[in-house]
Amino acid sequence: MILMPYLGSLARKFLFGVFWGGLCFYIPPVSADEDFKLDLPIECQIPQQCIIQNYMDVSPGSGYRDYRCGTLSYPRHKGTDFRVIDYAAYHEGVVVVAAQDGEVTRIREGEKEDLFLEEPEKVPSGREAGNAVVLRHSGGWETLYAHLRPGSITVMVGQQVKAGEKLGLVGLSGNTEFTHLHFHVTRNAKFYDPFTGVQPENCNPEGKPAGLWSAEASESLSYRETGLVETGFSSSVPVVRKLPLPEERERISYRGETERLVFWMEAWGVHPADRLTLSITDPSGKRKVDQTVLTKRQASYFRYFGLKRPQEGWLSGLYLGEVQLERLVKGSWQTIFADSRKVELP
């Protein structure tokens, strides 16, 4: 499964039509102000609780590439998506903060939570980024914080804020399939990639640009092209985009003699030719395996594997689910990630 590119066309509608005005053209790169540095805009441990799901698209032509020439982006994506993968932390409230001192110039409030997940056609045109805050900084810089939780915004237009001051909470408002903060940076209405410090240009797989991040922020923002979001057991196949919602967790939970035992996983940044293995081992030690070789790069990937209830009923005891992603590196298989989970059936 690939996460739908929630911006793209809406970048023109919201980022330009509503907040910025004008059209977007490719502009030759211009170096950023060396004095303009950004702290993390989110209070979240990376990569334990949050990951970067999408970077800015720096490809000047067709297709898309992130700043390291990977595919953690999509066409014309203008920002950085900090995705919350710890859903318990999400429900408790993941705080969005000012990345630098500035003045609140624009706010949008009143957009519903998870409307896109339930009824995507009802997301109002021009409001696809949901609840949002825009800050103006010195030197013509602005930062935008989008998809905030309804009722969570704590600042007002005209208010001066300091770096690290709370603006709101990560939410699911607007046109988004996953729990995240969309954050982007402009200077004089021109977009800059905070990881390179310049306007969009060709990627560099080996480069280590200074970028716009502060030294402290840079320490937690190492490029991670692949990783595991979550694994789980359920009584039916989850609707992956609804996994952050308590109602979906309740729907797939066990009730009495479940007919199916489903082991599932979600990852980010998988590559073609990656080898993915899922397995379930029952209390007697019998192991069933599902193995597949992936055929394309995907920013988000979901797969499940399940057992049907035997006629004589389930064996009582612990069932072990395991996942392993392997990649050919210089001619030999290397484990990129592995995880396991247990569930007990009566």
Shape: globular
CATH class category of the largest domain: Mainly Beta
> What is the share of helical residues?
under 10%
Strand content: 35-45%
The counted number of beta strands is: 17
- Contiguous uncertain segments of 5+ residues: 1-30
What is CATH's topology name of the largest domain?
A: Glucose Permease (Domain IIA)
Order of helices and strands: HEEHEEHEEEEEEHEHEEEEEE
- Going by CATH, the homologous superfamily of the largest domain would be Glucose Permease (Domain IIA)
**Main sheet properties:** 8 strands, antiparallel
Number of domains: 2
Radius of gyration: 22 Å
CATH architecture of the largest domain: Distorted Sandwich
- C-alpha end-to-end distance: 33 Å
Overall pLDDT metric: 87
**Count of alpha and pi helical runs:** 5
Class by SSE composition = mainly beta
Tell me what the structure shows.
The protein has five helices and 17 strands. With 346 residues, the chain is mainly β. Strands 1, 2, 4, 5, 6, 7, 9 and 10 form an eight-stranded antiparallel beta sheet that branches. The chain is globular, with a radius of gyration of 22 Å.
Give a summary of the structure in a few sentences:
This protein is mainly β and 346 residues long. Helices cover 10% and strands 35% of the residues.
List the helices and strands and how they pair.
Layout lengths: L8 H12 L29 E5 L25 E5 L2 H6 L2 E3 L4 E7 L6 H4 L12 E6 L4 E8 L11 E2 L4 E4 L10 E8 L2 E3 L22 H5 L7 E8 L11 H7 L7 E11 L4 E7 L5 E7 L4 E11 L8 E13 L2 E14 L1
Antiparallel strand pairs: 1-2, 2-9, 3-8, 4-5, 4-7, 5-6, 6-9, 9-10, 11-12, 12-15, 13-14, 13-16, 16-17
